[in-house]
Amino acid sequence: MKDFKNFIKSGLSNFFGRACLLMFALIGLIGCTDFVEVGPPKNTLVSKTVFEDPATVESALANLYLAMREQGLVSGNFGLTTRMGIYTDELDYFGMDPELLEFHQNRVLPHNADILTWWGQAYQVIYGANAIIEGLEDSTSLVNTDKDRYMGQAFFARAYMHSILVSLFGDVPYITTTDYTQNNKVSRLPQEEVYDAIITDLLDAINLLETAEVENEERVVPDHYVAQALLARMYLYTDQWELAESVSTVLIDGFDLEDNLNRVFLKESMETIWQLKPGNSPVNTYEAGQMIINAVPGQTYGLSEGLLAAFENGDGRKVAWIDSISNAGNTVTLSFSHKYKAWITETQSLEYSIRFRLAEQYLIRAEARVQSGDANGAQQDLNAVRNRAGLPNTTAVGANAVLDAIVRERRIELFTEQGHRFFDLKRLGLANAALGDLKPNWDPSDILLPIPEAELERNPNLLPQNDGY
Amino acid sequence: MQHSISSVRRGILFMLLYVILMSFFSFHVQAGTVLEPPQITVSGTVTDTSGNPLAGVNLVVESKQIGTISDFDGSFSINAGPTDVLIFSMVGFKSVTVPIAGREEVIVQLEEDVTALGEVVLNAGYYTVSDRDRTGNIATIKADIIDKQPVGNPLAAMQGHLSGVNIVQSTGVPGGGFEIEVRGRNFINGVSDPLFIVDGVPFGSLSMGSTNVSGQIFSGNISPLNAINPNDIESIEVLKDADATAIYGSRGANGVVLITTKKGREGKTRFDAQFSSSLGRVSHFMDLLNTPQYLELRREGVINDGFGDALENPAYDSFWPDITLWDNNRYTDWQKELIGGTAYRNNAQLSISGGSARTQFLISGSHQRETTVFPGDANYKRTNIHSNVNHRSNNDRFRIDLSTQYAHENNLLPRTDFTLKAYTLAPNAPALYDEGGNLNWENNTWDNPLASLEEKFEVKTNTLMANAMVSYKVFENVEVRTSLGFTDYRLESYRTLPSSARNPRLNLTPQGYSNMSLNQSQRKSWIVEPQLNWNREWKDVSVDVLVGTTFQQETTQQLVLRGRGFPNNSLIENLAAAELVESLTDVDSDYKYNAVFGRVNFKYIDRYILNLTGRRDGSSRFGPDRQFGNFGAVGLAWVFSEASIFQDDSVLSFGKLRGSYGTTGSDNIGDYQFLDTYTITGDDYDGVSALRPTGIFNPLFGWEENKKLELGLELGFFKERLNLNASWYRNRSSNQLIGIPLAATTGFTELTGNFDAVVENSGVEVDVRSVNLVYGTFKWSTSLNLTVPKSKLVEFEDLENSTFSSRYIIGKPLTITNLYHSLGVDPETGQYQFEDFNGDGAITSSEDRKWVEDLAPNFYGGLGNTLALGNLTLDVFFQFKKQKAYNTLQFNTTPGYPENGSVELLDRWQEPGDIKSFQIASAGLIFGEDRGALQRRSNAAVSDASFVRLRNISLNYKIPNLDNGLEINVYLQGQNLWTLTDYRGPDPEQTSNTRLPPLRQLTLGVQVGF
Question: Is B624 part of a structural domain of the chain?
């Protein structure tokens, strides 16, 4: 015990004590808290600063269009055009990709990787849109016209992604906040309410975009026309005929059909309402890369016999928008969509990926008119599209016949464009009749895709799964 | 910005003060010269018990702290006073104390030390501790074992040798990575890597590979530890329990691995040269279908799918080129062709060492070249330079120890691992080359695997580690020291994808397709750790006190670029020739770390030891209000064999009971995770560069905590010829920083935050070392280690409703996997059957995956035997592990798919009544009826993967009776030579089919020293 006392004494009395003090003084001098502060990361921006400068807000918006172009639902390479084309009677599939085979065989499993990507990427875009809307609301240094323009575009982006989700998956959550605690446990909203929310967002978008001028020479960013084009489609999908007619009229008055079928898909086409501008590589569309067949065998997608047979004699579109190729022995000939003609290695930028064009608006108005009793007006709109293709006026008489003619015309005019065929068959209740015999595995419940299984696991509030899965 | 400027200023100020302080001390050095009394010269010889002269024996005059070393003929001479005492010591021999007693010649015999324990001193990081006195759990592996293994990475040398340390090699390709876990996985998400410290300097072990560049060859995992030449390592210590790791605070939760490099020894200048050559081959090939078997299944599958008629229609040829277009009589053993080569490794090392009593040095350089088992001229080259200088001042007060390591690695590989192709290519796939010697595309019906030889992948790394330890004894028992360190790790890699490597049918052009990606990464860190050490011994009590502080900064930069639009493929390696250069990743992050730490160690009558350690840590990785945390531990040891009831001749010669408890943490979660951020994507839309949201703001972002409890018993029998160490541990990790998976509706896939979950890892570790037999020049010793780990999720708030509900179960380990329960093939329908857990009549959702298998090992360990007879030494080391793993069924369960598989697939259902293990053949052309995908995720795909592996065998012969101190050793070493396992798959350790399994290697080498 005495040793212990000695130790205490010696420890405090001699130089050691002073050395100790020096040591701690040194530590105190450096200071702890300051040292572990680091500046903001150099390659990222903190959210708040993004919304204080128009340039960075535009960059945040650019990311939404970039995301739409490169991946997910509306992209030309992984999107609706190919997947829903082989899901219905538009395209045959000649590949071995198991995810795509599931689409082709109408056996999409809940853990299909494509639908998981579609779902996730769509909600990523929606988050981006919501972050912009919230960021702009708190922003103090932007002028109002800028704010309106950006916010209008964000509302449009949010509505656009939801409009496709609801068509594919039925009841889906409608996300209007960035708060992850809410979004992580969100439940599905009945389809009708999703459509209502889309329409409300689009009306807001149109309001904001009409007052704020959008510089849009190449029609590559959404302006009020784009929002109206989607709005007309939504009114049509929800059977609001008068509203569909009046909104599509705005577009028909504002744009003209391209006379030359070979010019419809060029980037300068005057009937284009909105197109996604390609990036640096390729400088043309992904659609062309997917659709054009260069060699047999070696094909991935080919146009189905049924679609080819549906063209009337003398239809200019069969010549202008379709091409074919044979194998070496000429034993097999396959037709492919040739709407977009610039192959991916083409170094001159000729075509952009069109998402809304005027012909669809004519067909929307035709359908809205016949549904609201104006068969004559419907025929006029239908003929506008037919005549441009070199076809005579429709011979259909009577509401039902005209409606049938419109559906047929939509199939021909809009083939391999963003899954229109599937959405039409679905909303008009024609899917079982059209696909039941053709596709051996077709089941009435295939009208909806399954909610991705991984998402049901992550958020059980999304249960139950859609019927049949 | 202000903050960082002020901290830089303070850093400079600190350095200035430090320099001033040190110059004051060195002034003190010159002042403190001691006058020597008159001396006589004492000379003599040292021999072993059989009379052979012993070279290199350390010889110290006790009172004067001067010394020398015996010459190759055992002779020595030294100046000493007539009443002085000489101490002779040498590794492997018992030390001897000899009073001079006026003599001028002294003859000394040293007795060989046959105890297995010896006086082992362990590196505990900030301090050293003798094995006898340690209160914590420190496992160690020394150079004698490391040097016997022909491996390229220090982690490979550790495999199986240390209890509680589970290491798995992730690929057999040279330059690849390893997974290491010390006492299991503590954290639900995030890194399980321990903290690596090389000569006192933390070394970032995380890969800086980019999946954009090295994704298909290493899965992006390029271990920076490859830069350390195992032959330069003196010892590796693994700190496991709280007592040993709490002094590392927030970085000690996953354990600490201390790597100490070799240092120069006093004595005449010594040259050592070592040359070795290795041959390596894949140790096990899978038993795959041959052409007739394969085609039989394919045809059957197509017919079963209902496309039998289409087989005759050429329009569909591209669906099944293997059946209709390719030669049906052709057979290629693709395993032999693609991964069946021999990998050669040549290694040369040269070192010079020596020094006086005050200054010693070591310089070593080595070069290694290793090829692969793949076709082509892929190879890995490494050059290492290691140097060390130590100096002590005349009065022994001032010491300086400088070490530097430099490594240059150059790894040239194909960009894709050929393993997957080797296992899955159809056996009748076409020839690789046509008659003209060009790549054969067989009329564009297949993707030639050798095309990827045109796609180059190269990674070059430069690693520099430098450290200095400067210390000064202010008083006899007060030492001020500072460790200074600097590391610089640079990685540069590129991958080219020329259009000529792709199927010509794709019509790709260099302008449109060819591209090159480049990864330039750098991780730089510096560390300064001033420390003060005070120790004092009284009659019964000795005290050792250490206080210190750490300042560390690490900057990480990574730039991944991709160039496209090359005018032709020959310019593809020149980024300047690219029309367009995109930036894919641009990371520039800063990590700062500051801590105060301390240790107090009390020892009472050599019997009771108390060790207190603690650390207060601050890290920039956490939210503004959560930057600091406190960690500490208490360790106790009772050496009960010192009690008087134990006589010198009792069977039990050593006994110690020890225990420890404390907390550590983990901040290994990446920088800036708490900020809500937008990141520049590098892409643009309509000329506007895109900003992507990349983080959600989370200010409540703090430490992960790990509480460790340990009890240990150490026993030595028969004068410590048999040693047994047993420990039991229980580590509980809470406040888990989890990238909580988020539902996609949030716009993100995960959010990192602290989560109220507790993971418990417990287990028992046993280490046995014994000297079994010593008879003349024959010696047989054994070491055995065994680890029985257990792990469970103790607590998880609201698990049922969380995103983890289908992954984890309370009370089960984190390593479980949830599977369907396979009921085999229905004899009537030929389809796989599964248990319908939720009773909804369908097998689809996660609710039907209720069969639980744990993929963590039940136990693992190693058994080593060393037999020495005269100049011949044989080491045999077995590694064993009991575990379950995914077998070949994880890849393919449906016969008839357009890819090759195991011959087991022939045992398929063909007609009602068949009782078979595989279902009806299908070419994968119809869905719904094919339940193979479910079978791949069922319990049938998990089976026993236990193994006993002859990991290392080494035979060393020392050529006897050479003159002039010449020493020549010839050795033959084998790695991974033999495996006993029932595992169905490529390799029980590495069960993937996309990565090359670890190789079997045989090495012949010679070592010359003089």
Answer: yes
